Amino acid sequence: MSVSIFTVTSKSAVLRWSRYEGALSYRVTASLRNSPVPVVFASFGQNTIMGSVNSLSPNTAYTFRVEALGSLMNMLADTSVDGSTAPDVPAIDMASSKESRSITVEFTEVSGATSYILRAETNDGSFFSEIPVPTSPGTVTNLQPYTDYTLSVMSVNSAGRSQPSISVEAKTVLPAPQFNTSSPSNSSILVKWEPVNHVVLYSLSIIKDGSYSQSRLNTTDTQVLFPELEAGTLYCIKGNAWSPENIPGDDFTICQTTRSPTPQSIALVVTSTPDAGIVVSWDPAQGAEQYVALSLTGQNCSSSSNSCVLTPLSCGEANSVTVIAVNKGGNSVPSYPVQIISFPCPPQPIWVEEVVAGNCSVKWSPVPHAEYYTTFIKSDDGIEGTCNSTEPRCQFHCSCGYSYIMSVFAHNQAGPSPPGPLVNHTTLPCCPELTTVSAVSWETLMVQWSPVRGADLYETRAVDATETVLCNDTAPRCALSDLTCNSRYSVVVIPCNDVSGCNLTCSSQTHETAPCMPEIIGVTQGNLSSVLVNWTSANTAANYTVTVIGTVGDMHVCHSNGTSCQVPNLPCGSVYEVSATASSSAGKSMPSYTIPLETAPCCPDNLTVSQVTQAMTNVTWSDANGAQTFIASLSSSRGNAQCHTMETGCVMGCITCGTNYTVSLEAISRTGHKAECTYHGFSASECCPSGIRLFRGTNNTLRVRWRSSSALTNYTAEVTGSDSTHVCSPEPGSSTCDVSEIVCGQVYSVVVAPLNRDGAKVTFCNSRMYSVSCVGSNVGMVLYRGRR
């Protein structure tokens, strides 16, 4: 079973509990906190779960107990809860309205109350409001003006609120009239408002700002005019409405400034910065917040200070200006018009004449109303000058290569004219100084000079008898190329710019180009070590140099002032390139086209002839520079032998033994150049004998016999066995000789060879094989076994 406090008042409490099964009734008791004795009680039926106990004391702490009772009034269950009653009911002392939207209530405060609730309601129930307040007095807001309300108050603590107090009646006051003000003139203020319902009278008062004196009046009308006020002064108007009960309603205050007085001491000054206009100034006017200046031509300007500028201002015009002062009250009466004449218009058109170089004149058309003119002249180096004149022209000195900017201003008492058109005048550029002309190649002249003022472009011109060569560049140098060789050119540098054109008065200088290129028409090799070079050329007074350069870097030269030159001491077997150049005081020509030159090949330093067989020789020689092939020849009265080879040797047959030969060699280059080379003669070896026979002799000897080819030839015979060699040499002219101490039973090799003049044996003669048998211990039969 549970119980809770639903609500309390100052003298009662409403409890809520849960139903208990079997209970036929419920008893609710209230006892002072911490006291077991009930102070009050109440009984309720079995179907009741909410009930109240009354006759409690305000702002008192209680313990509330609910008992569930059976049929014999016996207690089946119980539960309790602690709580307090609300504070005592306060009493209203007074309720009054000071404002049309609220009523203030004064009441007696009660003990234990933490706050209060003010209740306001209308009799017809159309309005009901409860507003919490902390203490007395309290104010009920958001009410309607001039309306009756019933008001009561309740005290509040943490337990709840008390019963409402005894109510009182009160009515809100009339609302304030809503004033609208204006200042018809700088000495009056007009106040208007809409009528207020239930009003019987209006009260108004006016006071000047900063004053303690005020004027009052009552009226039943809805507008009032306050005259004879100070201009440009702030006034505050306060007013309210009176009800039929003679109770004043809400106050309403509004402040209004009278219009300012007319501005005085108007002054006009023409200005040109930042824009052309009329500076209008005046003495300050009382109460003015803003000033407006108006011109006859329709311009206007405004300012919160005592000046402003009327723009735009046209040159040479007459105008008049008035000024009005403005504040919240409106506009003042305009000031009297003030007349002014603006500055003159700028002179135009402007042009420059330069009849004589260095003497320039600026001219323009006359300007109406101009008293005098000022010409500003500024050169591009920053130097400025001025010229004052009463006539429409001005003269000044102008130097070559300078650009000038000029402007002209017209003046009168209002000031100078606006800037007119700027005139640019650029004088002819100056002629270059320190011009140098040098040859950089056979056909090109490099022209250099010091930069000059005013030149945007330089035209370098070279003129000879047949052509004109031009070079245009912005740099102070120019290469004149593709010139004619061996010619005299007149060279001049002409400075130009886009504005004034070219200065054609600069002086020229003469320069000669290098000689023309020679043309080699022939290269002739006179002997093995020199060549003759011939050429053609149209040059005059030129010297020529012929250069012969080998592939290994060796160089040979010769010099001539004619058309031929011989180059000596050229080595054999070399390849050269031949060219010729011409030179004069103007420089060198281009080298001629190169002519190839190949000298005859060299002869080998060494050549050797060796006889291989009786009819064949081997000829060898050393390398020869420049030679690709060789033809070796052996010549005699008995016949010739020859071989053609790319090697450094060859074998030749058909040699006649015992014959003297002339030895020659022909070296041939790859292009067919030949060198004839001769050497010491060659003598062929003596002829080998024929018919060689071996015969048995006595006492273990053998006889060798042969047929001799010459009776003057010496021979030697060698008989070689397995153990020893036996040699015999007969007397010259003899064709037999004997060898002794022959051992039988062996095979012998027999060679018979002639001796050369130097005593050397011919080595290529054939040997013959013989078997020597034994007869006892002596030499027996000799058998021929053939050649080896």
UniProtKB/TrEMBL annotation:
It comes from the Eukaryota. SMART domains: FN3. Residues 86-175, 346-430, 517-602, 688-777 form the Fibronectin type-III domain. Pfam families: fn3. This is Fibronectin type-III domain-containing protein. The lineage of its organism: Eukaryota, Metazoa, Chordata, Craniata, Vertebrata.
